TrEMBL record:
Residue numbers binding ATP: 41
Protein's recorded name: non-specific serine/threonine protein kinase
Keyword Transport in annotation: no
Span of domain Protein kinase: 12-263
EC number assigned by the record: 2.7.11.1
Keyword Cytoplasm: no
Keywords: ATP-binding, Nucleotide-binding
Domain of life: Eukaryota
InterPro entries in the cross-refs: Kinase-like_dom_sf (IPR011009), PAK3-like (IPR051931), Prot_kinase_dom (IPR000719), Protein_kinase_ATP_BS (IPR017441)
GO molecular function, one term: protein serine/threonine kinase activity
Length: 286
């Protein structure tokens, strides 16, 4: 059985909504027996055209555990909703940071190393994430990085070595996804490259354009670059170029990139704590 038995409302209390997306809402709640805060993703099955994607998220989170992947505690069917109960990361999403603050290269390297560790693990298990972006990266209060949002994941195998569904978020999509060419794990590396541009520029390339126009440019034009290329080191530029390579055969893998000299700048999670604290101060003023 994909989901666990029982009604989470029997052991959770104090539900507070903290976000809303295309699939449903996210609340924080408190476990009655432990007092621990958890995040609860509540997805209305009646509103989903592709329900299998929601259950796919549960299967991926249940079957694959890694220090840089958000931990799922339980899942359940509650009336017409699928609930996923997982660890609550109080540092919020990386989006909240990159939209307001420019990261230095130590911080960029620290984020990238953690995400690449998660991707190298998932790819080794035949899992493609297909929605890497700053909104899918969550932080703890002490600066640790965790990958989330597994609803678009796909499993590949010897029998099904490629996928071709048009899945993901437009500005972060690899050219081969947009052109519906069979693709594999390389698409996550491209999307991580776009996320690096976010950390340098504050937003992905072509973000001021409509999604369809941006997708056309990503599909047809040379690989985008950061607007602020003049502000980054040659080492970071090379790291970025190896991800934003149009030909997926020539694109570096997550494992390759973990050996890139740019990541020698990676620090401890502590270097990200000031960014988390700045974000939380801004939120407290709202």
């Amino acid at each position: 059985m994909v989901v666990d038995k029982g009604d989470p409302r029997m052991y959770l209390e104090n539900f507070v909504k903290i976000g809303e997306g295309s699939t449903g809402v996210v609340c924080i709640a408190r476990e009655k027996h432990s007092g621990r805060q958890v995040a609860v993703k509540m997805m209305d099955l009646r509103k989903q055209q592709r329900r299998e994607l929601l259950f796919n998220e549960v299967v991926i989170m249940r079957d694959y555990q890694h220090k840089n992947v958000v931990e799922m505690y339980k899942s359940a069917l509650v009336e017409e909703e699928l609930w996923v109960i997982m660890e609550y990361l109080q540092g919020g999403a990386l989006t909240n940071i990159v939209s307001e603050t420019r990261l230095n290269e130590e911080q960029i390297a620290t984020v990238c190393e953690a995400v690449l560790q998660a991707l190298a693990y998932l790819h080794s298990q035949g899992v493609i994430h297909r929605d890497i972006k700053s909104d899918s990266i969550l932080l703890t209060l002490d600066g640790r990085i965790k990958l989330s949002d597994f609803g678009f994941c796909a499993q590949i195998s010897k029998d099904i070595p490629k996928r071709k569904s048009l899945v993901g978020t437009p500005y972060w999509m690899a050219p081969e996804v947009i052109s519906k060419t069979p693709y594999s794990t390389e698409v996550d590396v491209w999307s991580l490259g776009i996320m690096v541009v976010e950390m340098v520029d504050g937003e992905p390339p072509y973000f001021s354009e409509a999604p369809v126009a941006a997708m056309k440019r990503l599909r047809d034009e040379p690989a985008p670059t950061a607007r602020n290329t003049h502000k980054i080191s040659p080492m970071l530029k090379d790291f970025l170029d190896r991800m934003l390579t149009r030909d997926p055969i020539e694109r570096a893998s997550a494992t390759d990139l973990l050996e890139h000299p740019f990541l020698l700048q990676s620090g401890s999670p502590q270097c990200l704590v000031p960014l988390v604290e700045q974000y939380r101060k801004r939120m407290s003023r709202c």
